[in-house]
Every structure is written in C-alpha cells, then in structure tokens.
C-alpha cells in the first residue's frame, strides 16, 4: 500500500467524489422543491407514507385514497428506515436529502474497485460517469422514489461480483427484496451469476431466495394489503405485444424505437464497453420487464426507472477495463488509455439534455415572485387542516396537513381548504380548463376566497356549509359538473 502523501490523496478519491455528488444532488433536489417543481405524485405520496411510519400509524397515504396502505401499492418496507430522521426533521426535504445520500454513496464501491484494479484515471471516469449519468439525473429530477434504496445495494453487490467475493455479493443483494417487489428477480440474477462463475451453494440459495421473495410479495403480501385485493400493476406487465405469442417477444424488445434508444443511451457513457461484461446480466430483469411492458413510460429515459441500472453499467465498465489491463496487445492498451476520456466526454455531452442540465441555467438560481407569493399563500393554511391542493402544491403541505390532490382520486368537497395554482396548471389530474371549471364550481358551492396572489388561490369552505352540501353541488347533473 502506498503510504506517501500522493498515495493518501489517491485513496481519498472515492469518498471525495461521493461527498461532491451528495452536495450537488442535495442542492439540486432541495432547490427544485423550493421552486415548486416537485409534486404530490410522487414526493407527497412518499412523505405521507414516511410520516405515517414516523407517527406510528403505518404508511397510510390519503393522496392515493382514504386509508390507503402504501405497502399494498408497492412492497417497500425499506421506507421505514427514514422514520427516525423524519421525526427529527418532518419535512419533504428529509426525503430528498436521504435520496441524495443513498445515490451518492453508491459511487464508493465503483471507485474503490476501479482505483485498486485499474488506477485513478479509471476511478475518476467511472465515478463521475456514474454520478453525472442521465439515469440519475432523471431520477433526482423527478421527486423521491423508494427505488433509490436499491442503488447502493446493487452497486456494492455488483462490484463484489466483479471482485469474485461471492458471499458479499449475495449479502448486499438480499435486502433488495425489502425495496420493491420486482427486485427479488434482480437478487436471483446476482445468484445466477454466482452459480455460473463461482460458489454453487451460495448462488443456488440466492436464486431461490430472490424468486421466492418476489413470488411471496406479488401473490400474497401485496394482495393482502391492496384495496383491490391484487397487485395493482399486473396490467402494465402483460407484454408489449398486446397478447401476441412468445415468438413475438424478441420484436417487443426493440419496438417501438424508444426502447433501442434507451438501451443505447445506457451503454453510451461507457463507450459501449459495458456490453462486453457478463456483469450486465444483473440488469436483465429490470430491462426485461420494462421493455416487455405495455406502458410507454417504462420504455424511455424519463422518471426513475433507470436508477438501478446505472451502477450495473459502470461496474461493468470497470470490469472490462480491469480485464483489458491484464491482456497484452495493441487493442487492449488502446481500450485502457482511450476509454476513460471518451467516457467522460460522452457523459459531459449528454449532461445538458437531461435534468442536470438545469444546473447550467439560471432557473435554479433565482426565485420568481410567483414562488414567493405561493409560499405566502400556503402559510395561511393552518396546521392539521384537510386540504385539496394542486399537484405542485401538495408536497409543500404534506408535512403538516392532511392533503389530497385537487381533482383526483378523492372529491375536493371533502376538504375544508382548497389551494390551486391557476396560472401554471400541470394538466394533471385535470386539464387546465377543467381545473378552472372546478374552482368556479367550488366557489358556487360555498368556498370563499381567502387569499389570491400571482394565480395561487386559497379558498375555505364557508361557515355553515358542510362537505355533504358541497358534494351535492358537484354531483352528476349539477350545474357546472363535468
């Protein structure tokens, strides 16, 4: 081990990159929240779930429906880990900071492996490539999601696979079954790799554990806690072919073209070298259900669906470079020398096209008057009030109020307070015209305007008007009802 000052500085690379990434992520996500870019679906949902754990009620999420148990939507008991932190700081920012920490710490095993086996240049390229990747940008640019608990677990597990530490790989993978119901299959993929390349006993046990956990969650636990009595997303997993036979599955993996673009973008930051590593088999379960789904949201590069793939891709990148260093020949030497700068160049070229590109604009660095006005209006809502709010305003209130989304799935007439952003409606869950109609209807049904500033309007049900009275006005056939 190099104990010189230079050697000590080199060993600081993984931790330094992780800390720098955490600070970038924390600023990015918290600032987006301050500017009202976050939403009830999904940050508000997860805050209500974590708040329920912190208050000892369990993950009950009114945004999804009266008494809705979040464990009946996706099996994610890992969220309970955040409860003690939320008790200390009961704000949506707690979730965003936790997510930033989880995603940033995943760079440590990738960098450490690269540093030990391939040197500082590879460690820097892999670490920054992972940390600034479009998959993480899309994830952190869209609220909070339970899937980020899986990111460091997968990173440590896949790097252990690359270093042939079979038991460590299995142990890091095992908790994935507490993050989401589909990740048991990823655990099984880790086990299959171990079975194929190393310890058969550990590999077989890991495969059986992963498959068994997913089956238990999908067929028993989720139906037991779901309001509908079954897993709510079976329809999304019915196959992209819309019911065609098995012979059509290969075509479903590459059509429409969005799927091919996504796969190419996954590999592009590694100069396509990750495809040469057998470690990519760990990505196949997630890629498989996404590409074979009939839900177009799963096929592209938006949202959080690629977060768990990024550590696999960059661990595979390190794996290829480590093996190339062990081989003789011009091609191997060229790969070792050229791949890190090419990877860095591709990562930087992609940066402006995804959410991290916002860091390069003025949008995150200034606070519009509309945002200041919205915060002032929201401050007038009393604690513990029941509020129907526009989707973008929901997570500004979920730490201190009982909040539902204005327009879906519950009737706004069940809330005493309504707060809507009429100047910048999202178009979900109500189209702008429909949202304006519903606001007008609320005013006719007994809600009075308390404050209005820059299009952010706060209404309160008039004294003597009950929820039943307002519901009668909104009933089918009533004037203005849609």
Automatic annotation (TrEMBL):
It comes from Kitasatospora putterlickiae. Residues 462-482 are annotated as: Disordered. Keywords: Membrane, Transmembrane, Transmembrane helix. This is DUF2079 domain-containing protein. The keyword Transmembrane applies. The chain crosses the membrane at residues 12-30, 95-115, 122-141, 170-196, 202-222, 303-322, 334-356. InterPro entries: STSV1_Orf64. It comes from the Bacteria.
